Amino acid sequence: MPRNPSTGVYSKPAGTTPSVGQVIDPVPWNALTTDLGNEITNSLPRDGSAPMVAPLKAASGTVSAPGLGFASVPQTGLYLKGGGLLGFTQNGVDVAFDHAMVYAAKSADYTAVASDDAAVHRFTAVATVTLTAAATLGANWHYRVIADGADVTIDPSGAETIDGVATLVVPNGYSVFIICSGTAFFTDKVLARIQQKADSTAVGSFIDGLLLSNNSGSPTTHVDFAAGSARSGSSFVSNASSITKRINGTWAVGTGNGGLDTGSVGASATYFAYALRKDSDLTFDVVLSTAATIAGVNTTLLTGYTIVKQIGVVLTDASSLIRPFVMYPRDEYTFVTPVKDAVGVSISTTSNLTTLTVPNGVKSKAKLRFEFTSSATTNAALLSDTAQGVLAAGIGDDGGNIGTIQVASGFAIGSQEIWTNTSRQIRRVAGASGSLWVWTDGFHFPCGRNA
Q: Reduced to 3 states, what is the DSSP secondary structure of residue 212?
């Protein structure tokens, strides 16, 4: 066939260029007419009535003169970029298209590399995603992380930043879109706006979870805080896993580190626990303080953190060790070993105060058991909230909560939950002289748990 398949140039068969008076040889002329018919059949109709039967080989073209364009808009079409990449141009302007999205599930730490451009990685466990150097990834590199099982930390290379900070935590249940500028990393800010929106629009005050307990390995010096969340007004913080803080060390960020806002641990002291939120990434931590209110917490070590809410309390004994306790829902505490706060204390018709082992500086409802003995029969004792003022024990007065002595020098027992004053005290009085024993089983210290 005279058409060159590589160039498309048609050449007539030899012997088909006659001269005047020449006798035409039918063989080459028949070959010419057959070949012309074949080539016409093999040509693409302009009206599109027949399809191509082999790949169409267009010119490479340029962004301003695409190899495949349109008669009415010749600068719009397809062209071949350098490196064999397909280019799209509109009115002579290159149009960029993203890579195909690639999904993968991850369950451990991972280093994001250049080939992860446009990837979507779903992390089902606690993980740190380390980003390769921005200069290596290059401008326009982008990547999405989904935290679906635990928090995921995004950690840029070296001193590089993401949204201007060293690391970014993606809380469980959230996702983030990351883009590289060639020198730093940024997000689309959706995560930050969602979290800010939750703070700015929410109201109320509560604690969900975050129960306190003695650490199993170091129960007298370390406190565990269970997973949960806390809100106070428009401030909110949550934590997907438990953390531990030491009561015998000054505060430092992270689990296992010191928890005190200032000073060293004291004997027979009260330490209030406060939920913290890191301002840059909204991560959770806890600080311990003898201050009974947020306003009294020493914030010298807490730069970059917001104190969200008081979430609990721990007490130390005379040896500066944490008293073993069990914490129940609705802010109820029980000592593993009951504390004997009164041993044969004199009690009479004169009202006096009894100090209990409960949180100092706040009112709490003490869980108490009593034993009372007296040489006077039909004698009763009354223990009460100091807010009720001075009461008188006896059936003809304000009653009693320890049973009446029926036999001289006998004893009676009783139990009750009684609110203390902020100095840990309740009142005691009896119908006649006697002796009193008081056991403190624990207390209720309301912080906002409803379940």
A: strand
